[in-house]
Specification:
The chain is an alpha+beta fold. The chain has 6 helices and 12 strands. A hairpin with a 4-residue loop joins strand 8 and strand 9.
């Protein structure tokens, strides 16, 4: 098993590595973006985060694991450790679906927003949603809540009404907030 790095990477080094990984995976993806601390331009980075919509999920997973040790593997996230000990987290979004009767928008914006962070900023967004009787479910999007006393301790339960999920901007707008650029998301 590979050991974790002894120290965080400086932003420039982390950015260069993240860009190289993104470039390798881009031909296999409909969409891929660097997230996490690199996207927030933190001076030091402990791991690399990516959000992607794979073109061929099996091919993307095979490419990611070809030269890395699997730490965790699930339908929405694949975590690997590179030979140098650096952890890379890959979060899978979907491109939306359409059928004859219904359409589900992409969850790209919701996953990217959550996985960019920061933790404190995500908590702030969840609290803002709750204050508006909404619910932010990061893998799915922002939902309207309905009040049902027996539903949850809060008395609210997520409704099936999806308000925003496709873009970060849509989610901020649905929360009646100005868009916050990633580098300002430390709160």
């Amino acid at each position: 098993m590979n050991a974790p790095p002894s120290a965080p990477l400086e932003l420039r080094q982390a950015t260069d590595l993240a860009l190289a990984i993104r470039e390798q995976l881009a031909p296999l993806c409909l969409k891929i973006e660097i997230a996490g601390s690199v996207r927030r331009a933190r001076p030091f980075v402990n791991d690399l985060d990516f959000v992607l919509i794979p073109g061929d999920t099996a091919a993307v997973r095979a490419r990611i694991t070809a030269r890395a040790a699997i730490v965790s593997d699930g339908p929405q996230i694949l975590i690997v450790r590179l030979k140098n000990g650096l952890q890379c987290d890959f979060y899978f979004a979907h491109d939306g679906t359409r059928d004859l009767l219904d359409a589900t928008p992409s969850n790209w914006g919701s996953v990217l927003l959550c996985r960019t962070g920061s933790r404190e900023h995500n908590i702030h967004l969840c609290q803002r949603a709750q204050s508006l009787d909404l619910h932010w479910d990061p893998p799915r999007g922002l939902f309207r809540c309905s009040v049902e006393p027996a539903a949850q301790p809060s008395g609210h339960r997520p409704d099936t009404t999806l308000l925003a999920s496709a873009t970060e901007e849509d989610i901020f707008a649905a929360l009646n907030l100005d868009f916050v650029p990633p580098v300002a998301r430390e709160r």
